[in-house]
Design goal:
By secondary structure, the chain is mostly helical. The protein has three helices and no strands.
């Protein structure tokens, strides 16, 4: 069982890295900096790169927050399902007094 949790952990990490790289590409594509564009003053380039870095950081924080919220909701759903199954199991094995009285096993 430990092997499967390690594999799923690696799979989860790969997904996070994959989505983070896609987000990074979107941010860099939306920043408007291209190699063919006219280069302005170096001060403008510096402020643009700091803005891009801030955007990348905020997007990554957003992805992490969504991932954590999704994980929390999944665990909550899993607990709810487990409780429902346990209640069904208890109901299945609870003693029914009416049935015993009808069959004459008990007065």
């Amino acid at each position: 069982m430990r092997e499967t949790s390690t594999r799923s952990g690696l799979s989860w990490r790969r997904r996070v890295v994959f989505f983070a790289s896609i987000a990074l590409n979107f941010v860099l594509g939306l920043s408007g900096d291209s190699k063919n564009a006219n280069t302005g003053a170096k001060a403008e380039s510096h402020t643009s790169s700091s803005k891009t870095g801030t955007k990348v950081f905020l997007i990554l924080v957003g992805f992490v927050a969504v991932a954590m919220f999704s994980f929390f909701l999944y665990k909550l759903w899993q607990k709810k399902k487990r409780d429902e199954q346990y209640a069904r199991l208890l109901k299945l094995f609870e003693e029914d007094d009416e049935l015993e009285v009808e069959l004459g096993l008990r007065d």
